């Protein structure tokens, strides 16, 4: 905020000077519009202060980009957690249904067995033989149910294993992406530029609100410092 306040003060000072605004690139010159009835001040010139602060606009764009990628990572993490919850719900549903099926089969088998025993007590030899055959069938049915039970448990174990593998892979991918984003933006950490001159210029403008030209020397030093810092950063590839 201090940087942009200083920029506003400098632009106001340039407007009061009624001077020629020169572009940063060689060979390009832009002349400010002078209102009718007001003479142009000879020998006065000022820099295009807005272009001097392009480095801060770059940092702002990098921050927006970083925020967008972090939001994408957050959405991926929420999707992963939602998928995990759905898998747990499916496991619980399958386990519950398997239990209900087995319980119904056991209840049905017990009822048939009880009826067979009662008939055997009151029936003739033939009826007892039929009951014995039926009991044998029940034993076979029980063995079949045990096989189904083992099969269901095996399928459930595989489902839990796949769920664990999926969660592990998703977690690793999320952590890898988070590490990449952290490493990518680690080198874009920003630090104040010419902080001492910033404070001096701000103090000068506060003390000389009606005489802004008295702060022109500090403003020139600050612009020179910012330009030097900008060239140094470009030379380092930053």
TrEMBL record:
Subcellular compartments: Mitochondrion inner membrane
Molecular function via GO: molecular adaptor activity; phosphatase binding
GO cellular component: a single term: MICOS complex
Signal peptide feature range: 1-23
Membrane topology type: Lipid-anchor
Major subcellular location class: mitochondrion
Database matches in Pfam families: MIC19_MIC25
Keyword set, alphabetical order: Disulfide bond, Lipoprotein, Membrane, Mitochondrion, Mitochondrion inner membrane, Myristate, Signal
Biological-process GO terms, alphabetical: cristae formation; mitochondrial fusion
Classification via InterPro entries: MIC19/MIC25 (IPR007964), MICOS_subunit_Mic19 (IPR052632)
PANTHER family per the UniProt record, alphabetical: COILED-COIL-HELIX-COILED-COIL-HELIX DOMAIN CONTAINING 6, MICOS COMPLEX SUBUNIT MIC19
Entry protein name: Coiled-coil-helix-coiled-coil-helix domain containing 3
Gene this protein is translated from: CHCHD3
């Amino acid at each position: 905020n201090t940087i942009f306040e200083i920029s506003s003060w400098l632009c106001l000072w340039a407007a009061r000077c009624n001077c020629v605004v020169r572009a940063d690139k060689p060979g390009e010159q832009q002349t400010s519009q002078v209102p009718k009835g007001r003479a142009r001040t000879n020998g006065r010139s000022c820099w295009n202060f807005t272009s001097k602060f392009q480095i801060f606009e770059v940092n702002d764009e990098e921050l927006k980009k970083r925020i967008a990628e972090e939001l994408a990572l957050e959405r991926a993490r929420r999707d992963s957690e939602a998928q995990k919850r759905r898998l747990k719900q499916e496991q619980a549903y399958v386990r519950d249904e398997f239990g209900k099926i087995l319980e119904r089969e056991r209840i049905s088998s017990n009822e048939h067995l009880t009826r067979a025993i009662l008939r055997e007590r009151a029936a003739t030899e033939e009826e007892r033989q039929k009951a014995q055959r039926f009991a044998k069938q029940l034993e076979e049915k029980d063995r079949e149910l045990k096989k189904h039970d083992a099969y269901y448990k095996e399928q459930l174990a595989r489902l839990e294993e796949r769920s664990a593998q999926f969660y592990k892979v998703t977690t690793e991918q999320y952590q890898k992406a988070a590490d990449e984003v952290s490493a990518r933006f680690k080198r874009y950490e920003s630090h104040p530029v010419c902080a001492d001159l910033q404070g001096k210029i701000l103090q000068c403008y506060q003390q000389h609100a009606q005489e802004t030209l008295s702060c022109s020397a500090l403003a020139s030093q600050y612009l020179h410092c910012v330009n030097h810092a900008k060239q140094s950063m470009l030379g380092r590839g930053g």
